[in-house]
Amino acid sequence: MMEKLSQIGVQHIDKVLPEALDQFKQVIVVTHVPPFIEAAWHEGNLSEADYLPHFSNPSLGEVIKKHALSYPKKKITVLCGHTHSGGVLQILPNLTIYAGTAEYRDPNIHGVITVA
Question: For position 96, which CATH number holds?
Answer without folding.
Answer: 3.30.750
